[in-house]
Amino acid sequence: MTEEEKKIRLSQLVDRINESYEEVDLLNALGKRRLPDRDRIIVIIKAIRRLMFPGYFGQVAFEKTSSHYFAGEMISSVIEELKKQVVIALRYGKADTGCVEDIYEQAESICYSFAERFPEILRLLLTDVDAAFSGDPACGSKEAVIFSYPGFNAIFVYRIAHELYLMDVPFIPRMMTEYAHSRTGIDINPGAQIGEYFFIDHGTGVVVGETTEIGNNVKIYQGVTLGALSTRKGQLLTGVKRHPTIGDNVTIYSNASILGGDTVIGEHSTIGGSAFITESVPPYTRVSIKNPELTFKGKDDNSNGGKLYE
C-alpha cells in the first residue's frame, strides 16, 4: 500500500467516524458540556475514606490534639472537590439559560448537606465493622475488616453514594458504586436501602438491585443476587419496586437468587446456597434445595470399565 493510498483510506475512515458523531447524538457528549471526571470521583472516595479511618490508607498517624485540624482540612477539601463535580453533573445537557449561579448554589447546598451526614455514615459503617468481626471466625481484628475486607469496602462506597442518590445527584452515585464494583466484584446499586450491621462475606459476584430493601443484621455470601424478575419493560419500570425486601436477622448463603419486588424474606430466616426464590418466605423459615445424589464408583466397578473418575 502506497503512502497516498494510506492517506485516502485514513481520510475516509475519519469521515465515517465524524458522520457518526453528527448523526448519533449520544456519541457526542462535548456538545452537552463535559461529564463528571471519574478519576476525581475516585480521589473524593479515597479522601472520605481517609477522613473516616485516618491512619489506615496512607495517612500518616497524627496526635489527637491535631485531629480537629485534620478533620477540618479533609472536610473542606472534599466539599470543594465534590462541588466541582456536582456542578458538572447538574449542568450536563442543559443549555445556558442564565441559571448558572443557581446551579452553583444548589451544588454547594448538596455538598454541605452531604458532609453533614458523615457522622451518621460513620456510625453505620462501624456497625458493619462489628458485623464482619463477629460474623467471621477467620477475622483477626476489626482493623483487618477496615483495611482488607472487600465486602466492607463495597459497603463503605455504597453508604456514601447512597446519600448522594437520595439528593438526586446525577451520574456520581453510580460512578462511585461502579468503582467499588470494579475493585471488589460486588455490585450494590446506590438506590438500595440497607440497614445496620450489614455483612458481605467473601463477596465476589454479589448483586444488590436498586429497589432492594435490606433490614438490620443481614449477612450474605458470595454470588448472591437480589434482583428483578424481569426488566423487559425497560424504562417503564423506573421507580417501580422490582427487587426483594430482606427482613432483619436474615442469612443468605452463596449463589442464592432472590428475585421480584413483591418477594419478602421474613425476619430470622435462612436461605440455603443456590436457592432460587421468587415468592415470599415467612419469618423464621429455613429454605434449602435438596442435595443432589452423589454416586461413587471404584476402580473395580465393572460398569465403569475399571476406570477411575477424575
Task: Compose a concise summary of this entry.
This protein is 43% helix and 10% strand.
Descriptive overview:
- By secondary structure, this protein is of the alpha/beta class.
- It folds into two domains: 25-187, serine acetyltransferase, domain 1; 192-310, UDP N-Acetylglucosamine Acyltransferase, domain 1.
- 43% of the residues lie in helices and 10% in strands.
- The protein is built from eight helices and 14 strands.
- It has helices spanning 3-23, 38-52, 67-91, 100-115, 118-135, 142-148, 150-166, 172-184; strands at residues 187-188, 193-194, 199-201, 207-208, 213-214, 219-221, 225-227, 245-246, 251-252, 257-259, 264-265, 270-271, 276-277, 286-287.
- Strands 1-4-7-10-13 form a five-stranded parallel beta sheet. It has a five-stranded parallel beta sheet with strand order 3-6-9-12-14.
- The protein starts with a helix and ends in a 23-residue tail after the last strand.
- The relative contact order is 0.07.
